[in-house]
C-alpha cells in the first residue's frame, strides 16, 4: 500500500471517529430510553463486522499470493521448455544440413558393413557357447569321478586304521607282560646305576680337586709374597702425592724396570700338585684366586702403611664373571691383542649404574704370557692361574710406566679413592678371565644396598681351603649314601625282574593263539594298505583331471565373455549407425517437428507470462483491500474504546454536571490546564466527511451535526485518558 495514502488515512481517523462516537454518546444520554449498554453494543458490533472484513481480505490476499507463486512456477517451466526446444531445433537444423545424398549413402554403407561385423561376432558367440557347454560337461564328469575316488580313499583309509588297530591290539595282548617286566628291569638298573653313580663320581672328583687346591694354595700363599724396598715405597708415595715428571722418573729408576719384574716372577714357587686342569669360572677355583690376589694386595698395602684392607666375596666374584661375559666376551672385546681396544669404559659406566656403586678395573696379560709358554682356557691348570695372578700384580707395581702413568699401582695403594674416583671405602675384589685368556680384577665399593660384600670369603687361606674340602667331603658322603640306597633298590628290582621273567615264561606257553591273531592281523593290514595306496593313486589322478577340466572351463567361459563383449560393442555401433541413417533420411520431418515444438514452447511461455502479470495485478488489489480493511478495523476498535470511556464518564457524573457541561463549552479547566474548544458547524463536518468518503468507512449519520457538548466531551476525554491516536499496524506480506 502507498505510504502517503497510509499517512492520510491515519490523520482522518481522529476527527471522523471521535465525532461519531461523541454523537452516539450524546444521543444515548439525550434519550431517556437509551442506556450505556446500547451504545457499547453498537460499537462492539462495528468492531466484529470490521474484523470479519479483515479476515476475508486476508484470505483473498493469501489466495492471490498462491496464484502468483503458481504462475511464476509455470513461467519458469515454460522457459526451460523453450531452452530445450531451441537446442532440439538447432540439432535438427544441423541434421538437415548434413542430410545430403552422399552422406545418406555413406551412412547406409556403414550400416551394411557393421551388420556384417555383428553377424560375425554373433557367430563367434554361438560357437564359443558350444565350447563352454562341452567344457562344463567334461568338468561335471570329472567332478563325479573325483567325488567317487575321494569316497573310495576314505573307505580304504578307514580299513587301514581298523587293521592297524586290530594289529596293535593283538601285539599288545602278546607282548604286554614281558614288555612290562623288561621295562621295569631297565628302569630299575638305570635308576640305581647311572644317576647315583655319576653323582658319586662327581663328588669324588670334587674332593680330589678341593684337596689339590687346599694343599697347593696354602703352600704358595705362605711363600709367594711380594716385598717392596723402602726406596720404592718412598718414591711411590712421592709420585702419588705429586705425579710430576721428576717423581715419575725417580720411581721408574727405583723400580728397575722389567728386569726386576722377571726377578720377582722367578720367585714364584711351582709345585707338582698345582698341575691339575681346572675351570677358571668354577666357584671353588674363583674363590681360591680372589683370596690369593687379595692376600697379595693386602700384604703390599700393609708395607705401604695402609690399615684398610681389601675383601673377597662370592657376590663380588659373580659380579665380575657377569661383567666380563656381558661387556668383553659377548661384545668380542679384546682388551689387548694386535688391535687391542683397551678397557670397555662404556661397559664400566653401564655396570656401575646397574649396581649403583663405584667400579674400577685392572687387567693383566693373564694366561697369554708365560716363562714356560702360553696356556689356553681349555687346558689351563691351577698353576697357570695362580702364576697369572702373581705375575699381573707384580707387573702392576714395577713395570707400569709410559702411557698408564702408574695407574695400576694407584689402584692398589690409594685409600678412599681409586684413580681419582671417590666412594671406595669398602673395596671387594672379583677375579675373572675373559675368553681371550686375559685376567680382569674388578674393584667394587660394597654397600648394604648392592650386597657385593655378602658371602665374604675368609682370607685365612688354610681356613678357606679346609672349608672347601669339608664341603666336598660332605657331598661325597651324601653321594655314597645315595648310591648305597640305590644298590639296595637294585637288588629288590632284580628280584622283581626274576619274578617277571618267570611270568613271561608261563605266558609264552599259552601265547600260540595270540600269535595266530597277530599273523592274521598283519595280513589284513598289508591288504588294507595295498588297497589304500591304489585308492590314493586313483584319487590323485581324478583330482588332477578335475583341476584340468576346471581350468579348461574357466578359460572357455573367459573366451565366451570376451566374444559377448565384442558382440555387444558391435551391436551398439550398429544401432548408432542406424540411428544416423534414420536421422539423415527423416531430416525434414525431424526439423518440422522440432520447429513446431519450439513454436509451441514459445507460445506457452507467452501465455504463462500473461497469467503471471494478471495474478500480480490481482495480488496488488488484494493487498490494497487488506490494508483498507485493517485501517477500518483499527478505527472501529478506537471508537469502541472512546465510547466506553465517554459513557463511563457520563454515567459517573450528576445530572447538574451534565447540564452545566452542555451549556458551557467555551472555557473548561481539567487537571489544572485550560481547554478551548471551537464549535464546528454541521455543514463543515459534512463537507469534510464527504471529502474522505472514498477512503474511510462512515462512523455516523450523514445528516448528523457535531454539537458543542460532543466537542467538549471529546476534549475532556482526551485530556483525561491521553487517547490522542492509536498505533498503526504495518501491512506485510
- What's the SSE pattern? HHHHHHHEHHEHHEEEEHHHHEEHH
Largest sheet: 4 strands, mixed
Number of helical segments?
17
Q: Please compute the radius of gyration using only Cα atoms.
A: 66 Å
Oligomeric state of the chains present here: single chain
Across the major sheet, the strand order is: 1-5-6-2
How many E-type strands? 8
Characteristic key phrases:
four-stranded mixed sheet, disordered C terminus, 8 strands, 733 residues, mainly alpha, disordered N terminus, two-stranded antiparallel sheet, elongated
Helix-strand layout with pairing:
Blueprint: H1 3-30, H2 36-98, H3 101-223, H4 230-241, H5 245-255, H6 257-265, H7 283-304, E1 311-312, H8 314-329, H9 345-355, E2 359-364, H10 382-398, H11 407-413, E3 416-418, E4 421-424, E5 427-433, E6 439-445, H12 461-509, H13 512-585, H14 587-651, H15 655-663, E7 668-670, E8 673-675, H16 682-691, H17 708-721
Parallel strand pairs: 1-5
Antiparallel strand pairs: 2-6, 3-4, 5-6, 7-8
Q: Can you describe what's shown?
A:
The chain is mainly alpha-helical. The protein has 17 helices and eight strands. It is elongated, with a radius of gyration of 66 Å.
Summarize the structure.
The chain is built from 17 helices and 8 strands.
Amino acid at each position: 500500500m502507498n505510504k502517503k495514502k497510509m499517512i492520510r488515512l491515519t490523520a482522518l481517523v481522529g476527527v471522523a471517529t471521535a465525532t461519531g462516537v461523541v454523537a452516539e454518546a450524546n444521543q444515548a444520554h439525550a434519550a431517556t430510553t437509551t442506556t450505556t449498554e446500547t451504545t457499547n453494543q453498537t460499537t462492539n458490533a462495528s468492531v466484529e463486522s470490521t474484523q470479519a472484513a479483515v479476515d476475508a481480505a486476508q484470505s483473498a490476499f493469501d489466495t492471490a499470493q498462491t496464484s502468483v507463486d503458481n504462475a511464476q512456477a509455470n513461467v519458469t517451466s515454460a522457459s526451460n521448455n523453450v531452452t530445450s526446444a531451441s537446442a532440439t531445433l538447432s540439432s535438427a537444423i544441423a541434421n538437415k544440413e548434413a542430410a545430403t545424398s552422399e552422406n545418406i549413402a555413406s551412412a547406409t554403407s556403414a550400416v551394411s558393413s557393421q551388420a556384417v561385423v555383428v553377424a560375425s561376432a554373433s557367430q563367434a558367440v554361438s560357437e564359443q557357447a558350444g565350447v563352454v557347454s562341452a567344457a562344463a560337461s567334461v568338468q561335471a564328469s570329472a567332478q563325479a569321478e573325483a567325488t567317487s575316488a575321494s569316497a573310495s580313499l576314505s573307505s580304504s583309509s578307514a580299513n587301514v586304521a581298523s587293521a592297524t588297530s586290530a594289529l596293535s591290539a593283538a601285539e599288545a595282548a602278546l607282548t604286554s607282560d614281558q614288555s612290562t617286566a623288561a621295562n621295569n628291569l631297565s628302569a630299575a638298573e638305570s635308576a640305581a646305576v647311572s644317576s647315583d653313580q655319576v653323582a658319586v663320581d662327581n663328588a669324588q672328583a670334587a674332593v680330589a680337586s678341593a684337596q689339590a687346591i687346599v694343599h697347593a694354595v696354602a703352600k704358595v700363599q705362605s711363600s709367594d709374597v711380594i716385598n717392596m724396598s723402602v726406596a720404592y715405597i718412598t718414591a711411590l708415595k712421592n709420585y702419588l702425592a705429586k705425579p710430576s715428571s721428576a717423581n715419575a722418573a725417580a720411581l721408574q729408576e727405583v723400580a728397575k724396570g722389567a728386569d726386576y719384574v722377571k726377578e720377582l716372577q722367578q720367585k714364584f714357587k711351582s709345585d707338582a700338585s698345582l698341575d691339575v686342569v681346572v675351570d677358571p669360572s668354577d666357584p671353588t677355583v674363583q674363590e681360591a684366586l680372589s683370596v690369593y690376589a687379595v692376600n697379595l694386595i693386602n700384604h703390599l698395602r700393609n708395607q705401604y702403611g695402609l690399615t684398610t684392607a681389601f675383601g673377597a666375596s662370592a657376590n663380588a666374584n659373580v659380579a665380575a664373571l657377569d661383567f666380563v661375559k656381558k661387556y668383553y666376551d659377548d661384545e668380542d672385546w679384546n682388551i689387548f691383542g694386535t688391535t687391542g681396544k683397551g678397557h670397555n669404559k662404556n661397559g664400566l659406566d653401564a655396570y656401575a649404574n646397574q649396581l649403583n656403586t663405584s667400579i674400577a678395573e685392572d687387567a693383566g696379560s693373564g694366561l697369554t704370557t708365560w716363562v714356560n709358554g702360553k696356556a689356553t682356557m681349555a687346558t689351563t691348570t691351577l698353576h697357570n692361574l695362580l702364576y697369572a695372578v702373581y705375575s699381573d700384580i707384580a707387573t702392576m707395581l714395577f713395570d707400569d710406566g709410559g702411557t698408564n702413568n702408574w695407574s695400576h699401582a694407584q689402584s692398589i695403594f690409594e685409600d678412599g679413592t681409586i684413580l681419582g674416583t671417590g666412594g671406595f671405602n669398602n673395596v671387594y675384589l672379583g677375579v675373572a678371565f675373559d675368553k681371550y685368556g686375559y685376567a680382569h680384577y674388578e674393584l667394587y665399593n660394597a654397600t648394604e644396598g648392592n650386597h657385593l660384600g655378602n658371602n665374604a670369603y675368609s682370607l685365612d687361606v688354610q681356613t678357606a681351603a679346609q672349608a672347601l674340602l669339608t664341603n666336598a667331603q660332605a657331598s661325597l658322603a651324601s653321594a655314597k649314601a645315595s648310591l648305597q640306597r640305590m644298590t639296595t633298590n637294585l637288588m629288590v628290582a632284580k628280584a622283581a625282574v626274576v619274578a617277571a621273567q618267570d611270568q613271561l615264561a608261563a605266558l609264552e606257553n599259552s601265547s600260540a593263539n595270540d600269535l595266530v591273531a597277530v599273523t592274521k592281523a598283519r595280513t589284513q593290514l598289508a591288504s588294507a594298505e595295498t588297497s589304500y595306496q591304489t585308492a590314493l593313486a586313483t584319487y590323485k589322478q581324478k583330482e588332477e583331471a578335475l583341476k584340468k577340466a576346471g581350468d579348461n572351463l574357466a578359460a572357455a567361459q573367459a573366451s565366451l565373455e570376451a566374444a559377448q563383449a565384442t558382440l555387444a560393442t558391435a551391436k551398439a555401433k550398429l544401432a548408432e549407425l542406424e540411428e544416423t541413417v534414420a536421422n539423415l533420411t527423416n531430416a525434414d520431418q525431424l526439423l518440422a517437428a522440432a520447429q513446431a515444438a519450439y513454436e509451441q514452447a514459445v507460445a506457452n511461455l507467452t501465455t504463462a507470462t500473461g497469467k503471471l502479470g494478471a495474478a500480480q495485478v490481482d495480488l496488488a488489489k488484494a493487498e490494497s483491500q487488506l490494508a483498507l480493511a485493517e485501517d477500518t478495523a483499527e478505527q472501529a476498535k478506537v471508537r469502541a474504546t472512546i465510547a466506553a470511556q465517554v459513557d463511563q464518564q457520563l454515567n459517573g457524573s450528576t445530572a447538574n454536571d451534565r447540564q452545566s457541561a452542555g451549556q458551557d463549552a467555551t472555557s473548561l479547566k481539567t487537571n489544572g490546564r485550560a481547554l478551548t474548544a471551537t464549535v464546528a458547524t454541521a455543514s463543515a463536518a459534512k463537507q469534510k466527511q464527504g471529502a474522505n468518503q472514498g477512503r474511510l468507512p462512515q462512523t455516523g449519520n450523514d445528516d448528523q451535526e457535531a454539537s458543542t457538548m460532543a466537542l467538549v466531551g471529546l476534549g475532556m476525554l482526551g485530556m483525561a485518558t491521553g487517547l490522542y491516536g492509536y498505533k498503526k499496524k504495518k501491512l506485510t506480506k
